Amino acid sequence: MWKFRYSTSDGGTVIEKDVTLSENEDGTGYIMSGLEYDIELGYDEEAGKLTMVFQYVGMSGAKYVCVCARTSGGTYSWTEGYGLDLIFNMSDDSPELEAVDNGVWTAAEDPVTGFGFYAFADSPPSGSGGYIVRYQFVLGLTR
Fold first, then answer.
1. Structural domain of residue 78, as residue ranges?
2. In Å, what is the CA distance from 37 to each residue of 7, 47, 64, 97, 105?
3. How far is CA 85 from the centre of its chain?
4. What does each of the 143 residues of the chain score in pLDDT, given as a tens digit?
5. Overall domain count for the chain
6. Is 0.85 surpassed by the pTM of this model?
């Protein structure tokens, strides 16, 4: 069991939710369960990190639900590749995965700091989506 840690404002009160990480079927990453929808996390063993990028995660009625990157300023994007890296601190005593912008979003003054679940009428998404839940400032996961 891991604690997913986030805040609704920069430097605000930290909120924790219990999540689990389970290896995916083909062994190339993990599934994070415990939030509103399961999220597929890529795995880069050499870099010691998990990756969270745009993806479809399910349906809400007739709408397609996606994980979309969110910036510190509140912009969201469904562009493939935008997202967060979860970097392992390599500690056996206090394991932690720290969330950082993966560097694909190029506006350094407004980095990716979180994500949201958004519902779109079309697949692939077009126009704007309605949010289901937003995790604006993701700190990472701890044990």
1. 2-142
2. 19, 26, 12, 20, 24
3. 8
4. 999 999 988 889 999 999 999 999 999 999 999 999 999 999 998 998 999 999 999 999 999 999 999 999 999 999 999 999 999 998 889 999 999 999 999 887 899 999 999 999 998 888 778 989 999 999 999 99
5. 1
6. yes
